[in-house]
Write a structure and sequence with these properties.
Layout (H helix, E strand, L loop, with lengths): L6 H21 L6 H30 L3 H10 L5 H8 L12 H11 L2
Helix pairs in contact: 2-5, 3-4, 4-5
């Protein structure tokens, strides 16, 4: 079989071009693998759920008959323990769940400005 001379440089050029496109695409082009895309989607959905549940937390806090006592307990806690105090107050436990959610408690704490 007699192959033309341009085949060998053409194959090298195609391979080098493919590697270059891959490097540029993943480095600067914003391409990501399926695992990274899944992780980002899970993070975004978790953040959206937390953001949608903050009004529920605030409503639970507003309607709590022992609100003043619980607010005082949260304010008395050290800054790094306020999230746990809000969780103990029961405000981060959304309806239909048994346990409080740490992310919702943190976001609710920001909204309460404590």
């Amino acid at each position: 079989m007699n192959t033309p001379e341009w085949i060998k440089p053409g194959i090298y050029g195609a391979v080098i071009g493919a590697v270059f496109v891959g490097v540029v695409g993943f480095s600067w082009g914003g391409w990501v693998t399926g695992g990274t895309a899944n992780d980002r989607a899970m993070t975004m959905s978790r953040n959206d759920v937390v953001a949608s549940m903050v009004p529920v937390c605030l409503d639970i806090a507003r309607s709590d008959p022992a609100r003043a006592d619980k607010l005082e307990m949260i304010r008395a806690a050290a800054i790094y323990q306020r999230r746990d105090a809000l969780m103990r107050a029961g405000w981060a436990t959304v309806p239909g769940t048994d346990a409080p959610n740490r992310d919702i408690a943190q976001a609710c704490l920001k909204e309460l400005d404590l």
